[in-house]
């Protein structure tokens, strides 16, 4: 075996350029699969975190305002909270408007929420405090902003105690900033900033007064542990319709199911791209077969000499199979290293955590090695079948 390995290294080193080009073919295919699989995993994980941080991992109940008696009120909220499947529920009043500070203006989404919003939404407090029960009952002019707003107006995160002016239907209103939370929608804001602006959270009672809204736009629900969100959503939807006497007047949307559908779409896209990248491995395998056939033709006399001094067909077969295997292994390892390096080069500057799909990477390495061995069988068998007399004659 030691002699076989030594001969393999010497034979591959004879044509360094040709060997390197063949290795690069395998490496490019493996690197492509590693990158695509890892980017797919990173995309699913990052988008899932962003959607969770925007509070879309539970159930959102809305009503068809065109139908009479369907406007969401405190009675509907109490009915939802009494449901056995519900862990917590908060009213939500929403508006997209403009906010002003230091003679500057920006677009923002203003969310009127309850003091228990942190049980449903992901609000990671950085500075100050969140909304309290007293803020809600007293209808105070206070708010919690995300750090994007703080950075935009003051170039720092902590601006607790400052005031921000919000444009409502009743005119301009000044709100005191009592807390700053992390920006849950950073990724989405970067991709579709005009659709998902910065966020302001204020007491829903205050927002109802300033926006002239008598009810709620939605009710955000977090179901209990072990509860099927689809079943709970349908149950809540039926209970509200029965209470209001308006069939089809309410809609309970399972946001987790929406995220799962998005995950499936990303999985299909990643799989399709991986298959396309895998085709390059097959092409690289054909190049291995071509190179090995050329090598057999160039080393015909060498094969004849080895056979004439006692080398068996098995010995000749092992030499060429080991060379094909070496090319595949070197190319696979180089491609894996290159793929991981490129992934790190893209993730580190963007501050995105790296995620490696180890199973896919190992499967890709095994597949590329198998491709190299399979395409190396024919050239090796051609060399092994040569008769010493015919080989020496050439």
Share of helical residues: 55-70%
Assembly form of the protein: single chain
**Radius of gyration from CA coordinates:** 33 Å
Low-confidence stretches: 185-194
Question: Overall 3D geometry?
Answer: elongated
Order of helices and strands: HHEHEEEHEHEEHEHEHEHHHHH
Number of helices: 13
Count of individual domains:
2
Please give the number of β-strands: 10
Q: Mean pLDDT score, rounded?
A: 79
- Structural class of the secondary elements? alpha+beta
Please report the distance between the alpha carbons of the first and last residues: 29 Å
What does the largest sheet look like? 6 strands, mixed, barrel
Beta-strand proportion: 15-25%
Name the strands of the widest sheet in spatial order: 2-3-8-5-7-6
Give a written overview of the molecule.
The protein is an alpha+beta fold and 394 residues long. It has helices at residues 2-14, 16-53, 74-81, 133-138, 147-154, 186-191, 204-211, 229-244, 255-298, 300-308, 313-350, 358-385, 388-393, and strands spanning 59-63, 86-101, 104-113, 125-128, 142-146, 163-168, 171-181, 198-203, 218-223, 250-254. The protein folds into 2 domains: 2-50 and 261-393, no CATH class; 65-248, no CATH class. It has 13 helices and 10 strands. Strands 2-3-8-5-7-6 form a 6-stranded mixed β-barrel. A hairpin with a 2-residue loop joins strand 6 (163-168) and strand 7. Helix 1 packs across helix 11 (313-350), helix 2 (16-53) runs antiparallel to helix 9 (255-298) and helix 2 (16-53) runs antiparallel to helix 12 (358-385). The longest helix has 44 residues, at 255-298. The model is unreliable at 185-194 (pLDDT under 50).
């Amino acid at each position: 075996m030691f002699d076989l390995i030594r001969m393999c290294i010497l034979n591959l080193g004879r044509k360094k350029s040709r060997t390197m080009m063949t290795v690069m073919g395998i490496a490019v295919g493996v690197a492509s699969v590693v990158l695509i699989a890892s980017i797919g995993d990173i995309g699913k994980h990052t988008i899932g975190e962003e959607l969770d941080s925007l509070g879309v991992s539970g159930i959102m109940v809305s009503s068809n305002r065109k139908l009479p008696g369907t406007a969401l009120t405190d009675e509907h909220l109490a009915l939802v909270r009494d449901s056995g499947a519900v862990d917590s529920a908060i009213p939500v009043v929403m508006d997209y408007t403009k906010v002003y500070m230091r003679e500057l203006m920006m677009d923002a989404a203003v969310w009127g929420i309850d003091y228990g919003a942190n049980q449903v939404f992901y609000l990671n407090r950085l500075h100050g405090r969140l909304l309290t029960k007293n803020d809600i009952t007293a209808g105070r002019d206070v708010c919690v902003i995300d750090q994007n707003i703080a950075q935009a107006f003051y170039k720092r995160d902590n601006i607790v105690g400052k005031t921000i002016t919000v444009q409502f239907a009743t005119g301009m209103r000044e709100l005191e900033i009592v807390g700053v939370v992390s920006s849950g929608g950073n990724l989405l804001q970067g991709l579709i900033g005009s659709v998902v602006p910065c966020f302001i959270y204020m007491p829903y009672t205050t927002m109802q007064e300033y926006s002239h809204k008598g009810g709620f736009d939605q009710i955000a629900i977090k179901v209990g542990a072990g509860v099927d969100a689809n079943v709970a959503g349908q149950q809540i939807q039926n209970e509200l319709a029965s209470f209001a006497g308006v069939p089809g007047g309410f809609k309970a949307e399972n946001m987790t199911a929406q995220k799962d559908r998005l995950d499936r779409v990303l999985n299909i896209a990643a799989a399709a791209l991986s298959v396309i990248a895998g085709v390059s491995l097959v092409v690289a395998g054909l190049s291995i077969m071509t190179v090995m056939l050329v090598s057999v033709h160039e080393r015909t006399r060498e094969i004849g000499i080895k056979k004439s001094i006692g080398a068996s067909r098995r010995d000749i077969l092992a030499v060429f199979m080991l060379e094909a295997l070496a090319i595949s292994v070197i190319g696979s390892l180089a491609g894996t290293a290159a793929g991981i390096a490129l992934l790190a080069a893209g993730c580190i500057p963007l501050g995105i955590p790296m995620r490696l799909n180890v199973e896919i990477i190992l499967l890709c390495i095994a597949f590329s090695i198998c491709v190299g061995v399979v395409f190396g069988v024919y050239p090796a068998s051609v060399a092994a079948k040569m008769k010493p007399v015919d080989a020496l004659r050439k």
